[in-house]
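User: Fold this, then the next.

Assistant: Folding the first:
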Amino acid sequence: MTNNNKNIYIFYSSDQYGVGQLAISVLSLVKSKKMESIYRIYIGYKGFTECDFELLTEIVGGCENCYIYFENCEKYEKKYDIHNVDDHITGNFWPAPVFYWLLAQFFIPANRFIQIDIDTIVQDDLEELNNLYCDTAVGGVPDTYHLWRIENENRGLNTKLRQITPWLRYYKIFKNGKGYKFSKYINTGVLLINVPELKKILLDVVFHTANYLQLNDQDVLNRFLTKDVSNIPLKFNFCLHMFHHYELLASKDTSFHPLKYFNMLENQLINEIKKATVIHCSLKIKPTYFFNSKVMSIITKFDSIADYIHALWDMNDVQRHPLYPTFSDADRALFTTLKKEWNEQIALNFPARENIYSYTYIKWGELWMEIEKIFQNL
């Protein structure tokens, strides 16, 4: 199925705690629009305030051929027993809205739509993605995370988890033969949804199963739609977490799309991310940790967002930074914490990928500054 309609239907979902990330992604979406297509942006929400509605409406309202619609999805939660999943063993927390894209078929008046996670930066028009041929329920980019899980399972590293949590039992049952086929296990950060095919899935069974799987909506999709998935080019969902599994993947078959990046030089890779339609900030620690109202007093000390990010990368003692003496005691403590988290979560895991992460976080920070100005003018 292809699409020649000028209307492009786009779906996001969030609760009140994700509005900051959502606003940044929506802003990047409308700023990157180039074609004459009409963007119809649907937000499946929970717990929004009037201020949240005003902010998002303001972001979209000034853009030609862009329209925004809101759908309160809490009414579906009781019907399908959808709820937050807080796994204290694995440290994962999944708010109920991560499942809302499965519900969008009930209120988006189209046979296809594009689902986008809120932790994303859209860099290009979505017309090419929307016009891709897709005769399956879902089109998505192959993921690598399940390979890490299979590897740990084989090495016996999940023995403790196996005794405590039920998801591994279900994971064993749901694996496709000896494991998920790599090209068929996809990331849900950006999805091309074929609504008529998706409607064939029994949602009550899907949501019941979600309680027993580690990655919830992503594992659910890959459990029930294994035969109903098409692969789309990686540029439509450039996932940053792929590089977390570099050592594991380096020795594996590199014929599948994500693995081709691991043999690229830094300058080649930065060109790839610049050409990506959507960058997915799929790391456990999100950019909002480094860009929020609490750190504004620190960021404004720097000449640019780029200078702030470069300061976080700086491996020297925090007190040696030239701006450190100008910070208040509270800001010194906060800046020390920020650098510690950046070092532990990003710098030590991705020392050879500084340009990629700097590029992404600088773009995120610049969008965040725009959102702050819009918010102040409401």
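Now the next one, as you asked:
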Amino acid sequence: MHFSHMSIRYFFIFYGRTLRITLPVAIGITLLAKTTPLLIEDALRIGLKWFPTFALAVDACYRILFKKKEFYFYRNGSWTVAGLYTGAFIFSVFISVVLHFTFKMMMRWY
């Protein structure tokens, strides 16, 4: 796949729209983990682990079932559905790893 400025712009538009679902799901997972007798840092770790996987899967199911026509917009940037979600997964894992190491270095309790 050839990456142009437009295709990268389409990807970041898509990724920004996935955050509308993935962030509340990840926060919900973190809050559910906190209701168990875990420390806050353990709940935060669980949220960061599940953000790129489960939350993105929930977003994919929602979009594929209810917003299927939205994917035609991203074909203008030469993206396929699989390419969008693969890129979003890789980008989400990268963000989770960066946040994990940032918390680990900056906060003693993490």
